[in-house]
């Protein structure tokens, strides 16, 4: 009995952690599902109450929020001469689903982060908690910057390039609606996430896991990885133009991360020396 007792004591916390993880994952899925259903199956209408105009949700599949977002994509990203077609009867449905997923991911982020934070915070040291709190706002800003960079620059350039290439080849410029929407959603998420690179670097340095010197000495690897990421997230239809644009941007962000990491490391080193002197 005395031999089995420690094993039971070790297993109990693990089971509790797994139960807690399952609850958090379940909550995240519920949040995403609720927002997904709202965007996919509901539209927005306005009613007047006195002098006030109040937005309300109403059930609709044909004029849902996701469909309205698809209209916005078509108006903003599609070159005037490019004709969109449906290769499958369910292409419009899948397009609305892609957009609903993107919107639900963005709007549920605070709730998702709260669940992740609640799960990991008991196992963190105080300085690690402070670091995560400090990076939350910059992380949001960098993601928005990356998503905006993709939406307002990368995607229009890519669509225009493909359109003009079709004209030069003498073929009718057409594109599947599903491919059009999925490309936009994928690039917005991927480039937004890729823009977190300098924040990841500075956070690792702040936590003492990677020295700023390591980032400086391995800048060639940083550039290589930037090009690999650009190759992965780009659609690969522009002859290297979009890939190079993304790679150069990520390489610049890498060097920003190197500079900020060095500043943070020097500042923390001065604080430690000051405490030792005192």
Can you walk through the features of this model?
The protein is mainly α. Helices cover 76% and strands 8% of the residues. It has helices at residues 4-41, 65-77, 91-107, 109-120, 126-169, 177-194, 197-206, 212-217, 219-233, 241-277, and strands spanning 42-49, 52-59, 83-85, 174-176. It has a two-stranded antiparallel ribbon with strand order 1-2. A two-stranded parallel sheet has the order 3-4. α2 packs across α3 (91-107) and α5 runs antiparallel to α6 (177-194). The termini are far apart.
Concise synopsis of the structure shown:
The chain has 278 residues and is mainly alpha-helical.
SSE layout and pairing:
Layout: H1 4-41, E1 42-49, E2 52-59, H2 65-77, E3 83-85, H3 91-107, H4 109-120, H5 126-169, E4 174-176, H6 177-194, H7 197-206, H8 212-217, H9 219-233, H10 241-277
Parallel strand pairs: 3-4
Antiparallel strand pairs: 1-2
Helix pairs in contact: 1-3, 1-4, 2-3, 3-6, 5-6, 7-10, 9-10
Number of strands: 4
Strand residue percentage: 5-15%
Strand order of the largest sheet: 1-2
Rg over alpha carbons:
24 Å
- The number of helical elements comes to 10
Question: Structural class from helices and strands?
Answer: mainly alpha
Helix content: over 70%
Assembly state of the chains shown: single chain
Distance between the termini: 53 Å
Mean pLDDT: 84
Overall 3D shape: globular
Listing every helix as H and every strand as E from the N terminus to the C terminus, the arrangement reads HEEHEHHHEHHHHH
The largest β sheet comes out as: 2 strands, antiparallel
* Contiguous runs where pLDDT drops below 50 for at least 5 residues: 1-10
């Amino acid at each position: 009995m005395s031999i089995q007792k420690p094993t039971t004591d070790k297993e109990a916390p693990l089971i509790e952690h797994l139960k807690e993880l399952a609850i958090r994952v379940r909550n995240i899925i519920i949040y995403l599902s609720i927002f997904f259903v709202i965007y996919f199956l509901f539209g927005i209408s306005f009613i007047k109450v006195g002098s006030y105009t109040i937005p309300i949700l109403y059930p609709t599949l044909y004029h849902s929020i996701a469909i309205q977002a698809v209209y916005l994509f078509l108006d903003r990203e599609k070159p005037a001469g490019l004709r969109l077609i449906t290769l499958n009867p369910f292409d419009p449905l899948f397009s609305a689903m892609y957009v609903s997923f993107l919107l639900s991911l963005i709007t549920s982020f605070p709730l998702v982060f709260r669940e992740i934070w609640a799960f990991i915070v008991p196992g963190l040291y105080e300085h690690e908690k402070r670091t995560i709190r400090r990076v939350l706002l910059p992380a949001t800003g960098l993601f928005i910057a990356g998503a905006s960079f993709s939406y307002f620059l990368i995607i229009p350039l890519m669509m225009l390039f493909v359109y003009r290439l079709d004209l030069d080849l003498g073929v009718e410029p057409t594109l599947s609606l599903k491919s059009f929407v999925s490309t936009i959603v994928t690039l917005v998420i991927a480039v937004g996430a890729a823009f977190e690179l300098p924040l990841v670097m500075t956070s690792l340095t702040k936590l003492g896991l990677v020295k700023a010197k390591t980032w400086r000495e391995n800048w060639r690897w940083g550039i290589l990885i930037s090009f690999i990421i650009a190759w992965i997230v780009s659609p690969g239809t522009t002859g290297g133009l979009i890939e190079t644009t993304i790679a150069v941007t990520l390489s610049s962000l890498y060097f920003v991360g190197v500079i900020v990491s060095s500043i943070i490391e020097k500042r923390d080193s001065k604080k430690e020396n000051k405490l030792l002197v005192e």
